[in-house]
Design goal:
By secondary structure, this protein is an alpha+beta fold. It contains eleven helices and twelve strands. Helix 4 crosses helix 8 and helix 10 packs across helix 11. The radius of gyration is 25 Å and the shape is globular. The model has no long low-confidence stretch (mean pLDDT about 85).
Amino acid sequence: LQVLNALLPANQVVVAHVNHHLRAQSQQEEQFLRQRCQQMGVRLYVDQWEKHPQHGIENAARQERYRFFAQVMHETKAAYLLTAHHENDLAETMLMKLLRTGDVTATVGIREARPFANGQLLRPFLRVTKKSLIEYARAHQLKWYEDATNHENMTLRNRVRHHYLPEWEQENPRMVEHLLKFHDQLTELLTMKDAIVTSLITKLVHNGQLDIASYQQQEPLIRRWLLYRWINDQGMFDLQEQRSHQIDHFLCNQQSPSSTMMISSDLQLIKNYQRAELKKVQNLPTKKQKVSGFMVKFDHWYTGPAGEQWGIFSHPQAHTIAEVWL
C-alpha cells in the first residue's frame, strides 16, 4: 500500500481486507487499517469472516479471501489484484508442494501473474526477500502487524519456515535464490510444453476426436502430454498417471483397431480405426441405499458391514493391508 501510494493517485487504489476473526489482534489490525486508509484517502472494503468450518480452516480462509477479492474487483471494476507475496513465500510454497505432491506443475509454486476475476492477479514483490521488505519498512518507519500464530509449528508452512528452510540455508545461504532460479526454469519449461501440446492438439484433434495414426507416431512422453490435455480439457476426467499409461496402451494396440474402454465410472473411450472419442455414459442402475453421514475421528478404528476395519490415523498402524493418502 505504501509503494502504491508513491506510484498512483489515491483514487486509483482500492484496499480489500478480510477480518478472519480468528485472533483477538484482528480487531486492532482492522481499526489501524481503517485509520491508515482514511489518512491516505484510499477506499477500503472489509469482509467479516465469522462462520468458520471445524476442519480445513486454513484452506477455507484462503478461499474466503479470494472470493471477497473477486467480489471487490467486480464492484470497483478494478483491473488488477495485487498481493504482497515475497520471495520467501515462494520458496516455502515450492518446498511444501514438493513434499505434498511431487507434481512438477505444482512445484512451480506461486506465479507472478495469472488471470483472476475480471482482471489479473499480480505479485510484484515475488522477487523481493522478506528481509528486504522489513528493512524498507523500518527505513520508512512503517508500522506492521505480525500474526502471532506464524511462530507456532502447527502448520506445514510454519515448520518449513522455521525449521526445514533454515536448515537448508545453513548448507547454502543462497538456497532461496536457487529456488527462485528453479521456479523460473520450471516456468519456462512448462510454458514450452504447453506451446508444443497446443500446436499438436490443433493438428491431431478435430471436433473432439483424436487422430489415432498421428497420435501413435509421437514419442511416449508427448503422447502422455497429449492425453492429459485432450481428456482434461473436455472437463470429463482428472487423468492420473497410471491411468494414462493404460489409455496409451489401448490407443496404440494395433491388434484391436476397434474397441471401447471405460476410463471412469461414467466416461467411455471409443476407438474406431482412425479416430478415438470420449463419450459420457449413464451409470448402471444400482439398488438404492440410504447413506448416513457422520464425522470421522482420527486415530479410531471403524468396522464396515462386511466386518472389514478401517480408520484415519496420524501415525502408521501395524497389520495394515493398504494405505490411502488423503
